[in-house]
Amino acid sequence: MRLFHSASNDEIRRGETTDIYFVRTKQIIEAKGLEKTPVIADVTPGQLPREWAWGILCGIEEEAHLFKGVPVDVYAMPEGSVFYHGDCRGIREPVMRIEGPYSEFCIHETPLLGLLCQASGVATCAARVRKVAGEKTLISFGIRRMHPALSPMIDRATYIGGFDGVSSLSGAKLLGIEPVGTMPHALMIVFGDQVKAWKAFDEVAPPEVSRVALVDTYSDEKMEALMAAEALKERLHAVRLDTPASRKGDFAEIIREVRWELDLRGFEHVKIFVSGGLKEENIRELSEAGADAFGVGTSVSNAPTINLAMDIVEIDGKLCAKRGKMGGRKQVWRCQKCLMDIVLPFDKPQPRCPHCRGKTEPMLKPLIINGKIVAELPKPNEIREYVLEQISKLHLDNP
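^ that's the sequence the OP posted. Answer follows.
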């Protein structure tokens, strides 16, 4: 009996999470003797959500496992790559290309897109928050708003997008890092006294766990922050403000007030950690007000999915494409200096960057050849560094 409404690894790999029309398409193709006809299919993004100028590709490792054993060739941008809706001329650019008999992979189209669309949306949203937050600490707090089966994917995509840590046990285990968290309001309520709760946490929690006191349970944030600082002294690493939107008022002003009062009493070492309703649009203001770290939740875990689609662009060596798509095998060439892309037919020579005349590199690289994984699958921290290096060259609102 299925206790939780989520698909298993085997169900996903067998294509049991696909749309029914792909199953019928496979049946028709095989019934008419077309099962060996080779095709080339592109996976391309539509217009990016919220007028984003760029996205972060996430989910490639899962794609490798999805297509392992399927007799096709798959070429893809490396995981963590910046991608655009269109290249420097507005030509829609593929992030993945699949070559082989369509009957062999048509039932994988639905999971193929699902693995990329949602994870890429989360990673992109995380990368945009990272751009705004600068060097400030970012912790992923969003899994409680989503189905628990998704928690490893969400935390992995958030971390790859540039966050420093994640709160979930499953996400941290997948990433090979320690989970990060503070304390819930329930701890103070169970003790019935903030100071008793903070001291109990200090007495019981392992020494390597940072002492971050939640300071808005019963009283004014400033008053509770000072109470926590007096209770834990030099052992207090930070105070966390998690005031709900209905009580915030001017949150930046609250942060400035807490910072001032802590400093005035010699607690300059105590950091200010903020959470609760944070998103890309308000982090810069709170950072400038004095916040040192951010626990960002729903705005990233519930990021808009990126609308990727798969389309056949060549059949048995003949060019083809539906309306609005470009036919033929392609390569995406990228200038690593300015991250400008140019999409060209596959047989065209390597171009120079039209912007800075720099050398370009091919972005669609072998991932699967005849069902075998041939690409090295980098570790999450390596992908994260790749993302940070790329977004350092980009602006939020334009490439």
